[in-house]
Amino acid sequence: MYVVHSTFRAPDEKANEVIEIYKNRSRKVDQAKGFRSFRLLQHHKKQGELTVEIEWDSKVDYLNWVRSQQFKDIHDLEKKYPDQDLAAIVPSVKQFEVIIDE
């Protein structure tokens, strides 16, 4: 299994707005080959610090998603978001190979 974390910091006062965006996400990634699960995590003390966690069957499946036209289309829409504070957010991406899953 392969897990990807995209962590970003939104202004605290806009955290709920970002959460609503993710509640209404397109779900295109859910249809990608190898997709397992999607989670949005919120830091327990820093309201605006959010992490998107996506689980994949393999690194190859993740890379195929990142190279897909659907991935590009979704991320192009983010750049056009009317709130420029949110449109300018650049996440920190970390990738993990699951070693033990009990």
TrEMBL record:
Keyword annotations: Monooxygenase, Oxidoreductase
An MF annotation (GO) of this entry: monooxygenase activity
Spans traversing the lipid bilayer: none
Pfam family, one: ABM
InterPro entries: ABM_dom (IPR007138), Dimeric_a/b-barrel (IPR011008), Heme-degrading_MO (IPR050404)
Domain ABM positions: 2-90
Protein name: Heme-degrading monooxygenase HmoA
